[in-house]
């Protein structure tokens, strides 16, 4: 078991860079915080590179730590742990993980949520968590959507990225893939040709596109959909939050007896 | 039209205190930021005490400002505006409003969302916005739920507090009121006696209770409900975010043709 007590240690300096998206992508690694999430990642066989903990963490999760491959464990000082944490009150445990690699030719069967330029990390994370709960097959993030390894997205996802594939890919390519297989693609928008979601019949395979908080789904994608759907607004609100709208639509489209 | 150029001005010092809940409640006043929200408040006849704007705001919204009662308007320096703002990049306009006073004997007709100790400001604000969109009659905040005049709640509500009554009251008293009128009260929980929301028939009048992010609805309230309902989890997520759950339930319970 390694031991690192100084924040000036070169490995710690490298890991701290993972707070920035650029370095996460270069290294294909990211940081998660808190025991619950780390346990979830390990249970889902995510590729753990390091588990760092301070004295408090060592005491609190000693049984669990004993069960882990000892070459992954790093005992660190409180200062080191705080320097790696992005939480106001860090728990005593942090892990560094390798990003999953999905097969380029992964078969996109079942029902998929497609996020087009959704920018708020809380919205992206919550939608992935809801897709998991509703039983969708996976989530695809197109250009512009928030990086899922951002600490706010990770907190909002609550580990759902370990339960279903979350893939970054061009939505135009993905939509073509669905179209070739005659799988319906639903866009979301308010226009005269859109229909209320309650009139959409339930099917086993579909793709649902949710769009940017301000602009909605981009025009070039809406033109490729089979049907554009909306959620009726009965009161005086101008619109729904995009994550709420996604929740209502996914729970409607999936069959729940 | 008043003009205040110094952050040391006594009125500005007083208004700054409204960033704290304690002072908001003592003065029964609160601050909103951004033109869109202020316009919404004015259109809904909310009681505006002051509209403060800097030179940029004066240029950008001159036509609208001309239409307002001139005794409400306060031209302020950029420093003063920044000192009152809680946004990273303040727009050039801020308003001070008086909190609405609801009749103690307000008739609770129609459908109501009851929030029991919901703590996250974003969740509270989003649920009020969704209740508005879904067409509910109003929202009641019980003990412990976030203050709606917190700037984060105000941002998430997007003006829905000007569209439907949002009342702070003891939920136990409110539930007794509904019970006396034979209006069904739905709690939300996961227990063997709870039923799936898809099996709840739609009625015109009801109360739906959503609970704390961690603990759910408190036991003492669950004991008073007519029916406890849950949303099935089909995937591996442990739970849904409370605002997403509220959105799914409200859109299911309200009739939308």
Kindly describe this structure.
The structure is a homodimer of 257-residue chains. Chain A has 257 residues and is an alpha/beta fold. Chain A is built from eleven helices and twelve strands. Chain A has helices at residues 10-16, 21-27, 35-43, 55-60, 62-67, 78-84, 121-134, 151-157, 171-180, 219-222, 242-253; strands at 2-4, 29-33, 48-53, 73-76, 93-98, 111-115, 138-141, 166-168, 185-188, 195-196, 206-210, 227-230. In chain A, the strands form two sheets. Chain A has a seven-stranded parallel beta sheet with strand order 8-7-6-11-9-12-10. In chain A, strands 1-4-3-5-2 form a five-stranded mixed beta sheet. In chain A, helix 8 links the parallel strand 7 (138-141) and strand 8 (166-168). In chain A, helix 7 packs parallel to helix 8 and helix 7 runs parallel beside helix 11. The interface between A and B is large, with 38 and 38 residues.
């Amino acid at each position: 078991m390694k031991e690192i007590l100084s924040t000036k240690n070169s490995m710690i300096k490298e890991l701290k860079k993972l707070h920035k998206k650029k370095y996460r992508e270069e290294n294909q690694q990211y940081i998660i915080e808190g025991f619950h999430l780390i346990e979830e990642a390990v249970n889902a066989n995510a590729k753990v590179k390091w588990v760092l903990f301070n004295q408090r963490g060592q005491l609190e999760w000693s049984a669990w730590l004993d069960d882990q491959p000892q070459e992954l464990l790093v005992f660190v000082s409180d200062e080191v742990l705080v320097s790696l944490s992005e939480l106001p009150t860090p728990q005593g445990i942090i892990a560094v993980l390798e990003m999953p690699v999905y097969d380029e030719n992964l078969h996109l069967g079942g029902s998929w949520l497609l996020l087009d330029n959704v920018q708020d990390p809380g919205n992206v994370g919550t939608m992935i968590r809801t897709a998991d709960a509703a039983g969708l097959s996976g989530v695809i993030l197109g250009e512009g959507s928030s990086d899922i390894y951002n600490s706010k997205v990770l907190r909002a996802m609550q580990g759902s990225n370990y339960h279903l594939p979350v893939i970054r890919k061009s939505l135009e390519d993905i939509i073509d893939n669905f179209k070739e297989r005659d799988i319906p693609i639903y866009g979301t928008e308010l226009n005269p040709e859109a229909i209320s979601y309650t009139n959409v019949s339930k099917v086993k395979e579909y793709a649902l596109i949710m769009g940017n908080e301000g602009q909605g789904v981009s025009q070039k994608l809406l033109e490729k959909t089979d049907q554009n759907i909306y959620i009726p607004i009965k009161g005086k609100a101008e619109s729904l939050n995009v994550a709420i709208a996604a929740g209502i639509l996914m729970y409607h489209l999936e069959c729940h007896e």
